[in-house]
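Posting for a labmate who doesn't have an account.
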Amino acid sequence: MRRYAAEPAALDDQAIVVLTDQHDGRRLRIACHGAALLSFEVPAAGGVRDLADGYRDAAEISARPGSRFAIMVPFGGRIADARYAFDGQPQDLQPGVVGAARASRHGFVRDAAFAVAALSADDQRAQVTLTSAAIRPQPGYPHAIDLAISFTLDAGGLTLEARMRNVGASAAPCFFGWHPYFRLAADAAVDGWQLQIPAQTLIRTDAELIALPGVAAYVPLDDAPALDFRVPRRIGASVLDHEYTDLQAEPDGRIRTRLRDPASGLAIAVWQERGVMHAFTADTVSRDRRCAVALEPMECMADAFNRVEWAAAVRLLPGAERSFRCGVEVESA
């Protein structure tokens, strides 16, 4: 019997894909709706532990409360007032909408129906590639992006690779973000968990989570000790909904943000190769407040479409493809 298995399945009326390590019982479940990870089960003391605080049933997959494990393309986070300019052209993502109702966040594919383009398994890995052509010209975004999301389960853990190809006739602003929530204890708040973010700089925002203008957005963590997690420490009463930048890679090129539950010894590392990290202690979610931590690898900062310092990073030329890799390693259980 092969070590790994990959198969289509269903959760009520929702199509899903299941990747399994048949050697040690690790298992991923991924919804085709939005390409959202539903669960990441690993062996732990006393049985199996699900690290992913994902959607629990088909109704939640459709309603997507908290944007759990959302794939965020062509932008992550928020766009200020749902407006930006690109190549000198002003764009409005919500024409005709006024006041507090103006809000554009997390891209265009949270409700997209992804197709299973490839599904494979052998003794080394299980892998699925989900594709979508949902990003097409629309108000405020006159561009076309083909998107492929690959999930791989292997001995190293979970790897996610996003590939974004500009299939339009002009350059497009585009970047990737992932919105995963992790829950290391079934019945405990996050306060006792330890967090480490290998960043040098905090991105300061206003009440709408939009970065302050210019250099005022960037604060050395030496000047923000309450939000400094460069050295692992308890989350405690900290309320986090912040982006961190100037991330420091380890010798293998991976940037690792670490989360650990000292009570159980369960620990994970969320890795990425570049970009920023957004940490969120789930204080404003409608379900299980402060029972999970969202650690969000992002290719660029939120509102990057409006930031001159990110202009080159978001620019995707016609016919060009850009990829972003991130993932989760289980460091102890």
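Reply:
Got it, the structure tokens are right above this. DSSP finds two helices and 28 strands in the chain.
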